[in-house]
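FAQ
Q: What does a multi-component entry look like?
A: The components come first, one per line:
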Amino acid sequence: MAELTARKEITVIRDGERRLSGDDVVVEAPLTIYLNGKELVTLLCTPEKIESLALGFLRSEGLLSSLDDVTGLRLRDDRGAVEVELKNKSGLLEKLYGRRTITSGCGKGTVFFSALDALRSSPVRGDTVSLTAGEIHSLMGELQERSLLFKATGGVHSAALAGSGKILLFCEDIGRHNAVDKIIGECLQQRITMEDKALVCSGRLSSEILLKAAKLRLPVLISRAAPTTLSIELAESLNITLVGFVRGRRMNIYTHPYRVKDDM
Amino acid sequence: MAELTARKEITVIRDGERRLSGDDVVVEAPLTIYLNGKELVTLLCTPEKIESLALGFLRSEGLLSSLDDVTGLRLRDDRGAVEVELKNKSGLLEKLYGRRTITSGCGKGTVFFSALDALRSSPVRGDTVSLTAGEIHSLMGELQERSLLFKATGGVHSAALAGSGKILLFCEDIGRHNAVDKIIGECLQQRITMEDKALVCSGRLSSEILLKAAKLRLPVLISRAAPTTLSIELAESLNITLVGFVRGRRMNIYTHPYRVKDDM
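Then the predicted structure of the entire assembly, as tokens:
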């Protein structure tokens, strides 16, 4: 993980005593995404799984729907840029530049409100997907256990995809949104469907995270942090089970608790 | 604070026992900013101090530099929109749409890399600005003490402007970036200079937060969370004192420790 942290010389003050010390700091790096030869956006991210990040970002933005849309994917500029080629080039730029940007509090999210109405009319299924309270606690425990970059630096969010009570994919990033987009990108790359899975996150569940999940028909969202009113309202109408504040031996189920079973 | 939280009926599982309960959840609401009659962006935010948020956002984006640029500021749509009129209308839209977007991990930030080079050549002054380690601890304590919305919901970030060891302005928002932009907007509205002040934040210090501060020539940035490599490197070259992990009786000074004095 050498390239994801950097050693910095710092001054530590503890109990009034000042000393020089070394500290591992999380690397933040720009990643420019080129779409069909045109510069689209530059994300600031943890430079790991950057192809997944690029694909997940484009999926979240509604610019591609499966790996079959992708005809090219290349890293360049010493991993500071990704070139993505998509089929169906016409119309892409109009799609991009004709929209207004909705962007959140704490997330690079650029989610679009017209998407809301579309999603509202088409709730997530996954009515038979369920997991037990004990499984949720153990998934959250494993998420924290695997967050090595967080343990080293305290400066990243983590996200995981879980199925059958197990973590299948795990990603970390300085960005709450980037971590989720990396999971989405990996699902595309490995052709994993999210319709019967749960997404486990370290960060807050704002409406943008909820919408990312909803677009992929993901039925269960789990976090150790707080949701917002808007994410709860969306989850309610979209038939998504929203679980927050999974800490210690407690959790809050905000919507559709039927998918969380009691332990035997 | 009634309109900033909403009561939701939730299911709590604790130690395997399931019960229904009420829970206060932080309100997330869209705020659309219209600039000179054209829709610019929709932020998702905590609907408080929204004029300050709009002004601070525009300032951070480099679209205005002082209150003198603002010829109109109106709330509309039951506080879901703000109309801002700026002088010097020509050129504004070119400025806006000709740029690439740089957006971070965990922040709505849309900061532009061309700005980096410009800033690098012009470090912050404030060489005579200083505060003691004890003052930093007490500012962080007061920040947490005043974070009523966080105490109620666990779902927001807070930011404060400090001068002469005291908190002068305080803001909360679901977004790390929004909280800082609200402070910046309030400074504009009250014509408070930031050049001799410190910014105290609950959230991580990514490069975007650093750049917001740098644009306002703010010499000291304090957080209870982690910085990134990029924010440290920028702070180093811009002569900004970066203090992180202010917790308990400890803090890490990442750059320019000369502004942090020992307590007598």
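Q: Is there any commentary attached?
A: Sometimes. For this entry: Chain A touches chain B through 73 residues (CB under 8 Å).
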